[in-house]
Design brief:
The chain has a 5-stranded antiparallel sheet. The chain is 31% helix and 31% strand.
């Protein structure tokens, strides 16, 4: 992760909660790493999902509100970035067919969860 003025090219460890059962939260990230000066840095990101509004679904799932070191911000992924992210998904299995099936299962889970989250009123 690179953060201008704080860190450059350092490894990150953390967690991702994908569609947790927590109100309007679609995703929650918690990333831990050290800054260039050795201090610990925790970045928390949250994607929120508006209910009963299909026109907001794309924006909700491509906008990440972040907080790190007392600073808040918002990141947005572009359509090209979304395409690159989607094409980077890989299944972990012995055969090509099973890897493709694993990717299909994940994409089905993601789509159903996004729609289910949007429909909660």
């Amino acid at each position: 992760m690179d953060i201008e003025g704080a860190t450059t090219a350092r490894p990150v460890a953390g967690t991702l909660e994908l569609f947790p059962d927590a109100g309007d939260v679609a995703m929650r990230y918690r990333l831990n790493r050290s800054e260039d000066d050795g201090d610990a840095l925790v970045l928390v990101g949250t994607k929120r999902q508006h209910r009963l509004n299909p026109l907001r679904l794309w924006s909700d799932l491509t906008t990440l509100d972040i907080e790190a070191a007392g600073t808040v911000g918002r990141l947005r992924i572009t359509p090209l970035g979304t395409l690159k992210l989607g094409s980077s998904i890989r299944g972990d299995a012995f055969t090509r067919g099973k890897r493709a099936a694993a990717v299909a299962r994940f994409l089905t889970y993601f789509t159903r969860s996004a729609l289910r989250g949007m429909m909660r009123g």
